Amino acid sequence: MSVRTRRHLTSRVLVPALLAVLALVAQPIVAQAVPPAPPNPSDDDLRSGQARVDATATRVGHLANEITQADAALVALQSQVELRHEQANKALIDQQAADTAVAAATLAADHARAAADAAATQVTVAHRNLDEFAAASFRQGSTVGSLSAFLGSRNPKDLLARAELLDAVGGAQLHAVETMRRARIEAANKDSQTRAAVAAAQTAERAAADAKTALEGAYRVAIDTEAAQSAQFHTLQEHKADLEHQLYDAQNAVAGLRGQRQRYEEWRAERDREQAAAAAAAAAAERGTLAAERSSSAAGGSRLASGTVQSVINRAMAQLGVRYSWGGGNVQGPTVGVRDGGVADTYGDYRKVGFDCSGLMIYAFSHALGYALPHYSGFQYNAGRKVPLAQKRPGDMLFWGTGGDIHHVALYIGGEQMIEAPYSGGAVRVTAVRYTEIMPYVVRVL
């Protein structure tokens, strides 16, 4: 419980009790003397006391401004951390795509190489057949097919047999030469295909290597940035705690029941304004629900769409309190996070079950869409129809970015409220919409 909360609770208890005591004292009591008058300070005492009150109030105002500036700095640092995480998510996806391309190109090269080997085998067989034919021709003499091949015939039958043999040998020679020619052409084609496939594999490998280098660089930048920002974050937190302590001391130094009552009235007025705003938002949401129901009765099908949006919100709301884990969450629900080598690891995200911001959106929309959104807020920003921020409605995704780079996403639930998985060390929560660094468009997928 913060110092401010304890002070408010103390005021809520003590002030009504003190008023009740004063009311009892003010009632006439039989046989009891009237209490003596309280001290009446002089004008100089009043002026001196008021001067001390004014000086302290001025200091309190300065401290309040410093706390506001510290809070703004903390929000800016958290945005930078979220941006580095999302850039690392994108690098992971790019590396996976490059690895897939390498595998496909390598498989094509292997197939082409096998075909080239088969063609080379055919060339070898054809060459061996041609060699055998040439050897046979040599054994029969260099004038095979000429008149001398017939001179050794002993009778007409032997002469006819020799003629048939020569015709067969000539045909075999032509067939062997043609086979040799076709085999060499096919082998040359397969070799060309192999070289093309190998070149494609090498290109894919270079792309994978570039993606891996980009991934390692993104991780290194994220780790270094998170380490520096984490130190700044803790320094600001310590400074904020010190400012709050000074504020508490300064407020206690403002003497007198009038000052305490004034601060209590300010707190009560602020509480009343917040309750009035919440009631107005709830009433507006109720009017919107009734209007949607009337509209669905007049134009069929709208009720189904409203129910689908509500189911998305209900799925997200069912995860309230689930811890944040960087890289966690899928269509089934929260999952174990992944290592980032930096701040997320110090919170043990890689061994704890939870959601990160884009993982919560994947789970919330999975049943309504029938498919999984990409696990990267930058890609989710382009996953649906962009609508101006001023026209947001429940079920829309809100995005935050720095210099145009998306680093966070949340689900709008109406009444200027949203549900989000905020940061390492946090948990899924409902909070007011933050407009610092918010993107000018919401994304509507339903």
Q: What is the overall number of helices? A: 9
End-to-end separation in angstroms reads: 40 Å
Helicity range: 55-70%
Work out the radius of gyration: 42 Å
Question: What's the SSE pattern?
Answer: HHHHHHEHEHHEEEEEE
DSSP E strands, number: 8
- Tell me the fraction of residues in β-strands, as a range: 5-15%
Name of the level-1 CATH class of the largest domain: Mainly Alpha
The largest sheet, given as strand count, sense and whether it forms a barrel, is: 4 strands, antiparallel
Molecular shape: elongated
| SS content category | alpha+beta
List keywords for this structure.
4-stranded antiparallel sheet; 446 residues; 2 domains; single chain; two-stranded antiparallel ribbon; endopeptidase fold (from Nostoc punctiforme); 8 strands; disordered N terminus; alpha+beta; Helix Hairpins; elongated
Task: Please describe what this structure looks like.
The chain has 446 residues and is an alpha+beta fold. The protein has two domains: 54-253, Helix Hairpins; 303-444, endopeptidase domain like (from Nostoc punctiforme) (endopeptidase fold (from Nostoc punctiforme)). Helix content is 68%, strand content 8%. It has nine helices and eight strands. It has a four-stranded antiparallel sheet. Strands 1-2 form a two-stranded antiparallel sheet. The protein has a two-stranded antiparallel sheet with strand order 3-8. Helix 1 (3-26) packs across helix 5 (257-298) and helix 6 runs antiparallel to helix 8 (357-369). The longest helix is centred in the first third of the chain and has 98 residues, at 43-140. It is elongated, with a radius of gyration of 42 Å. It starts with a helix and ends with a strand. Mean pLDDT is 75; it is low at 1-34, 142-146 and 300-304.
